[in-house]
Amino acid sequence: MHRDCLLPTFAALWLCLLCLLAACRERTDVQTMHFDVDPARLGAAVEASDLGIRFQPPSGWAPLAAAEIDSVRRATALAHEAVELTPRYVFLDSTSGSLLSVSTLRLDPPAPFEAQVARYGELLAAPFPADSLRQGQYLKDGIHIAQFLLEPGGRVNFKLVFASTRADLLQFDYIATLAAYPGEIKAIESSIGSIQQLP
Fold this sequence. Notes:
globular; alpha+beta; 4 helices; 10 strands
């Protein structure tokens, strides 16, 4: 399907979410988001005790071997000396090429969460045309999440960044082509809704 045909669909699917995220940026309080979770669209649960989280990748997205993960780090990392991104779990849909990467994120120098998010947004925006990065913040089950939406090279990349009790910051990257994204959106939403912090 041609990209021009997909853009209205993409815009309609995410208009409400982006409006909410924009509203969150303008307010000092952060609103709570609820995600519709369809268990049929989720794979087996991953309990990452070292990261303090539990989550489920989309159904059919297979884990990559450790030897393959470094290529993902190069694809998702920001080339900046202040940013250290280390993928820990990566899941790939071999049919569509969609990908989920769960990484630890370290920004130098250390700072409170809000300051880190603001700086990270500036660093992410720098390599791209003006207004190509959309961002906002929300609460999901008590987790304060900063979300960044990029569309580099015909792909959609949702970056979710939040603090962890057992790591510096965590970053979830959901990446799909514009062609595949409409078919993946419910699985991605379900996967985001599955993220929980461990006690």
